[in-house]
């Protein structure tokens, strides 16, 4: 038909085999669920977390309440490096490995926290259908320093300004990014309008004021932001 010119897809044979076995046994695919938000590690994060150059793994940026990861004691900032003794090369590697293991499977994890290795074992849960997830300032706040070119607003004030259906999706706490100048350092770091800053250097923030108070005077800071229901780290530095 001409609709597939130059386009091809491949599925690993072990994944296809596992999917087939689960369809035969359960009538559906029972994917494994750890309960973490993850992202790839880059040199700025590696340095910030005291990791050696070239270290691979999946960086945790969020842990769901009541999930296997929470039971094991995993925390944002931990770097998962192995699953059942097999190295984790990236966040996609971890995501596919956990899904392939399947719900109800016990797995042994190795992770780094503050540069030190930790180990533990947990049973994966079934993947849920909805997989991971002060006074209000009246107007957006323009910022300086590391957030120069960024305007922030409290969730409550944003909620009052948008339609009800949209308001229901907004977070209750944090500092919502409503504007980022394209040439701002924060834009180059990956901060986007619509992000919600929930932590600054590991310190939880519930409002714009708290976010600004938590920003350090030094030239580097690590933000934990929520975007589209998922969390990720953003490194600000000069």
How would you explain this protein's 3D organization?
The protein is α+β, with helices and mostly antiparallel strands. The protein has helices spanning 13-26, 43-48, 68-72, 91-101, 155-161, 164-167, 185-189, 208-214, and strands at residues 32-33, 36-40, 58-63, 79-83, 86-87, 106-113, 116-123, 125-126, 141-142, 150-153, 175-180, 196-200, 203-204, 220-227, 230-237. Strands 9, 10, 11, 12, 13, 14 and 15 form a seven-stranded antiparallel β-sheet that branches. It is globular, with a radius of gyration of 20 Å. Residues 1-12, 130-139 and 162-166 have low confidence and may be disordered.
Write the layout of secondary structure elements.
Layout lengths: L12 H14 L5 E2 L2 E5 L2 H6 L9 E6 L4 H5 L6 E5 L2 E2 L3 H11 L4 E8 L2 E8 L1 E2 L14 E2 L7 E4 L1 H7 L2 H4 L7 E6 L4 H5 L6 E5 L2 E2 L3 H7 L5 E8 L2 E8 L1
Antiparallel strand pairs: 1-8, 2-3, 3-4, 4-5, 4-6, 6-7, 9-10, 10-11, 11-12, 12-13, 12-14, 14-15
Q: What Rg is obtained from the alpha carbons, in whole angstroms?
A: 20 Å
Q: How confident is the prediction overall: mean pLDDT?
A: 77
Structural class: alpha+beta
Count the E strands: 15
The portion of residues assigned to helices is 10-25%
Sequence of secondary-structure elements: HEEHEHEEHEEEEEHHEHEEHEE
Tell me briefly what this model is.
This protein has eight helices and 15 strands. The chain is of the alpha+beta class and 238 residues long. Strands 9, 10, 11, 12, 13, 14 and 15 form a seven-stranded antiparallel β-sheet that branches. Strands 2, 3, 4, 5, 6 and 7 form a six-stranded antiparallel β-sheet that branches. Strands 1-8 form a two-stranded antiparallel sheet.
């Amino acid at each position: 038909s001409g609709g597939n010119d130059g386009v091809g897809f491949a599925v690993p044979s072990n994944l296809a085999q596992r999917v087939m076995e689960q369809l035969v046994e359960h009538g559906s695919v029972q994917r494994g669920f750890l309960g973490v938000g993850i992202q790839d590690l880059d040199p700025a994060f590696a340095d910030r977390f005291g990791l050696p150059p070239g270290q691979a793994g999946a960086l945790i940026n969020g842990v769901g309440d009541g999930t296997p990861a929470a039971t094991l004691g995993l925390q944002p900032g931990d770097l998962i490096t192995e699953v059942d003794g097999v190295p984790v090369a990236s966040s996609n590697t971890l995501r596919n490995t956990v899904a392939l293991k399947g719900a109800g499977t016990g797995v042994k994890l190795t992770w780094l926290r503050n540069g030190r290795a930790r180990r533990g074992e947990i049973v994966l849960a079934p993947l849920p259908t909805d997989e991971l997830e002060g006074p209000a300032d009246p107007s957006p706040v323009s910022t300086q320093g590391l957030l120069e070119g960024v305007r922030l607003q409290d969730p409550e004030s944003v909620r009052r300004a948008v339609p009800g259906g949209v308001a229901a999706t907004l977070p209750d706490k944090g500092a919502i990014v409503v504007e980022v100048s394209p040439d701002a350092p924060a834009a180059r770091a990956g901060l986007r309008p619509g992000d919600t800053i929930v932590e600054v250097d590991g310190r939880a923030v519930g409002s714009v004021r708290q976010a600004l108070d938590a920003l350090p005077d030094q030239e580097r800071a690590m933000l934990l932001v929520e975007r589209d229901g998922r969390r990720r780290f953003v490194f600000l530095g000069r």
